[in-house]
Design brief:
There is one protein chain. Strands 3-2-1-4-5 form a five-stranded mixed beta sheet. A hairpin with a 5-residue loop joins strand 1 (62-67) and strand 2. Helices cover 33% and strands 15% of the residues. It has helices at residues 20-40, 82-93, 111-124, and strands spanning 62-67, 73-75, 78-80, 100-105, 129-131. The protein contains three helices and five strands; from the N terminus they run αβββαβαβ. Residues 53-60 have low confidence and may be disordered. The protein is of the alpha/beta class. Helix 2 packs parallel to helix 3.
Length: 141
């Protein structure tokens, strides 16, 4: 004896769609989407200066921080460490007109060193920051 729901005959086609596989696929896609989101949102936050239309306060003195492939940090050609960099940046903030700070890392410099330098620059609150030598990176890749 078989149990039949409703008055459906054995030879008639089933009129309902089975949505269980569709729901399973959607749940797998949702889980994959949730897992990949944190990887895409990882970033180092740097407050870049806002461009202004006032060009009257341009100081001709520019300080340059260079990082070479060996990880040596240079301030206007003189090798320094991170503590001295923080001290020099505080001295430039005390000037009446803040000079522009140019950062030029070597294409083969370690990211860890460059990240530490950028963290010191951010903590110091430098307002005029520029990256120079970006054309050298076009040939690296």
């Amino acid at each position: 004896m078989s149990m039949a729901v409703g008055d459906r005959d054995e030879n008639e086609p089933m009129m309902e769609m089975n949505t269980t596989p569709l729901i399973d696929v959607m749940l797998v896609l949702l889980i994959m989407f949730i897992i990949t989101i944190p990887v895409q949102t990882h970033a180092v936050k740097i407050d870049l200066p806002v461009p202004t239309d006032n060009q009257n306060n341009v100081d001709p003195q520019k300080n340059k921080v260079m990082i070479d492939a060996a990880g040596v940090i240079s301030w206007n050609g003189t090798a320094i460490d991170l503590a001295q960099l923080a001290q020099y940046l505080e001295e430039t903030k005390a000037l009446p007109v803040e000079p522009e700070l140019q950062v030029q890392p070597d294409p083969f410099a370690r990211y860890y060193i460059v990240d530490n330098v950028m963290a010191v620059i951010k903590r110091s609150g430098v307002g005029k920051l520029g990256f120079v030598g970006n054309e050298q990176y076009a040939r690296v890749f």
